[in-house]
Amino acid sequence: MSQPSLRQLFPTVSSALAADALDHLNLTNQCLAPDVVPLSPSHTLLGRAFCLRAEPAREIRPAVPYQGLLHAMEHVQAGEIVVFGTGRSGAAGVWGELITTACRTRRVAGALTDGLIRDAAKLAGGPFPIFSRGTVPYDSKGRLDVVAYGEPVTLDGVPIRPGDVLVGDLDGVTVIPAEVTGRVAELVADKVAAEDAFRAAVAESGSLADAFRRYGVL
């Protein structure tokens, strides 16, 4: 029997709902820093992590550039989110239009980095979701090299392992450890139902306190 997809597990989800569920499980350090934001307000993330790690380049003028990146990107699968760990580097844009075009062809679900991107004007209007700390014109060639992929990375103190689930939107990015994904999905569904009941109660009585006493959400 096939496993349910993430869209089936999470028909309704947000970074805030996921964070609330993780709080319930005493996993209270699962959100990235607030300066990691979507390029466009319409961009949202839901997918499993495919991890890359970049470090300062060893050669300023490499004879054959981008080798680590090109090799890594041959292994990303449909539905995965490329997680580009840079140690919050501001040296260069690690994501741009051409790599986005390739990822869209492979049905990759999005990109997330604690670094910077470029080609923002071309990417902001597109459907491919990209989360980063900002933009810069610099190319990564001779500045940052991909040195590892398929290994855990840490962004803003939050460990992200291959296969962990990422939920991103205008509020931020929440990381769901793979082993608790099913339980988080159950808790999110319960919270959505409680919030719907809360809204109905407030609409009927106008009392925030009364609705909180009845449903325990706020």
Automatic annotation (TrEMBL):
CDD domains xrefs: RraA_family
Cofactor names: a divalent metal cation
Domain of life: Bacteria
Pfam families: RraA-like
InterPro entries listed in its UniProt record: RraA/RraA-like, RraA/RraA-like_sf
EC number: 4.1.1.112, 4.1.3.17
Swiss-Prot/TrEMBL catalytic activity: oxaloacetate + H(+) = pyruvate + CO2; 4-hydroxy-4-methyl-2-oxoglutarate = 2 pyruvate
Subunit (UniProt): Homotrimer.
Family assignment from sequence similarity: Belongs to the class II aldolase/RraA-like family.
PANTHER family: 4-HYDROXY-4-METHYL-2-OXOGLUTARATE ALDOLASE 3-RELATED (PTHR33254:SF4)
Protein task: Catalyzes the aldol cleavage of 4-hydroxy-4-methyl-2-oxoglutarate (HMG) into 2 molecules of pyruvate. Also contains a secondary oxaloacetate (OAA) decarboxylase activity due to the common pyruvate enolate transition state formed following C-C bond cleavage in the retro-aldol and decarboxylation reactions.
Protein name: Putative 4-hydroxy-4-methyl-2-oxoglutarate aldolase
Annotated source species: Nonomuraea typhae
